[in-house]
Amino acid sequence: MKTQRKQWLETASAYHVVLMYLFMGVFSSLLLFGLLFTSLWLFPVLYLAWLFLDWDTPNQGGRRSEWVRNWTLWKHLRDYYPIKLVKTGELPPDRNYVLGSHPHGIMCVGSFCNFSTESTSFSQKFPGIRPSLVALNSIFHLPLYRDYLMSSGMCSANCQSLDFILSRPQLGQAAVIAIGGAQESLYAMPGKHHLVLRNRKGFVRLALRHGASLVPVYSFGENDIFRLKVFAQDSWQYLCQVNFKKLMGFSPCIFWGRSLFSANFWGLLPFRKPITTVVGRPIPVPQCLHPTEEEVDHYHTLYMNALQQLFEEHKESCGVPASTHLTFV
User: Fold this and answer.
1) pLDDT tens readout for residues 232-281
2) Do residues 148 and 73 lie in contact, with contact meaning Cβ atoms separated by under 8 Å?
3) What does the pLDDT look like over 109-121, one tens digit per residue?
4) In this structure, is the dihedral angle defined by the CA atoms of residues 254, 147, 177 and 160, taken in order, positive or negative?
5) Which DSSP string corresponds to 127-176?
6) Which residues 6+ apart lie within 8 Å of 294 measured at CB?
7) Are 185 and 251 in contact (CB under 8 A)?
8) Of 17, 60, 61, 293, which shows the fewest CB atoms inside 10 Å?
9) Is the peptide bond before 82 cis (omega within 30 degrees of 0)?
10) How far is 158 from 225, CA to CA, in rounded Å?
11) What is the pLDDT of residues 180-233, one digit of tens each?
């Protein structure tokens, strides 16, 4: 039985992630700008000078801190839902990996907790593997926020960054990619399992260029922690979402959780729904610097089939009805 103090610590940790995701980037930018007009103006000036010199760090493996990754805060986050990491096979540290993380959900809470923190003991379950969760490039342009994200091991999601991760001399590198991206958040409805994957093949080309094994990963329950307002595809609201995504790189969506003080009212606090992240078995991929479309399609099909099988094998043990199926869009 959890004590009231433990429940509040868990709630605070979950709320911290929401506030970090939604507001920290904007708040840190405004704070830095505001300090320029105070007696503390020297601090933002020095930081901005350092930021200029440090601009490419998110594309060069980031700057992780094992101290940050092991904060007790993340253990409370894990216990709030709770979040569990399930291992189905070995990931030998004598090669590199591309982990496809599904679904994106609203905030990728499962992926963040499992791969950007040590709250679920990733390094103990997969010794010798160094996971790097990649995220939208633009968020690494926001001062202070970028440094906070990089401290957990996150990097930019672009070719330069991914090539850098998988080209390191030390093997055991794992690039973790939410393949569906921001577009998939528009399908993050409770009880639904729709993935934007059918035409997403860049991660396969990446794996072929580096000879990195493909690993399907599915977080059951990721779509259940928020409620989502869904617009009809012929509505002007949906068209606005699509066009905004083309311009800004992410899709705005209307979502809500529970109130901080009562589960009977809407708010931004996620619902306490269990998230189980299942890491599948690796799919060996040969190195091919210039893969053909046939090769890309072949390994893309193998990956989709492996992900489908992973879903079918574990859905009932993770609380998903046997009649539910995974669909690709």
Assistant:
1) 666 666 666 666 666 655 667 788 999 988 777 789 999 999 999 999 99
2) no
3) 999 999 999 999 9
4) positive
5) TT-EEEEEE-GGGGGSTTHHHHHHHTT-EE-SHHHHHHHHT-SSS-EEEE
6) none
7) yes
8) 293
9) yes
10) 28
11) 998 898 899 999 999 999 999 999 999 999 999 999 999 999 999 999 887 666
| Cβ contact 22:268 at 8 Å | yes
Three-class secondary structure of residue 282 per DSSP: coil
- Token pair recorded at residue 305: 């089939």
* DSSP string over 51-107: HHHTTTGGGTT----HHHHT-HHHHHHHHHTTEEEEE-S---TTS-EEEEEE--TTT
Q: How many Å apart are CA 212 and CA 289, to the nearest integer?
A: 12
Q: List pLDDT tens digits, range 7-48.
A: 999 999 999 999 999 999 999 999 999 999 999 999 999 999
- Give SS3 for 206: helix
Cα(149)–Cα(133) distance, integer angstroms: 10
Rounded CA-CA distance 216/178 in Å is: 11
Question: Rounded to whole angstroms, how far apart are CA atoms 63 and 52?
Answer: 16
Q: What share of the chain is helix, strand, coil (3-state, %, to 5)?
A: 45, 15, 40
Using CA atoms, how far apart are residues 213 and 92, in angstroms rounded to an integer?
10
Burial of 194 from C-beta contacts in 10 A (0-12 / 13-18 / 19+):
middle
Q: What is the distance of C-alpha 152 from the center of its chain?
A: 12
Place of tokens 């729904």: 273
Q: Which helix H or strand E contains 34, and what residues bound it?
A: helix 25-35
**How far apart are alpha carbons 232 and 99 in whole angstroms?**
32
pTM exceeding 0.85: yes
The β-bridge relationship of strands 97-102 and 275-279 is unpaired
Regarding predicted confidence, which is higher, 138 or 245? 138
Structure-block tokens of residue 92:
């030998």
Tokens 């996620």 sit on residue? 270
Structure-token pair, residue 287: 């190195």
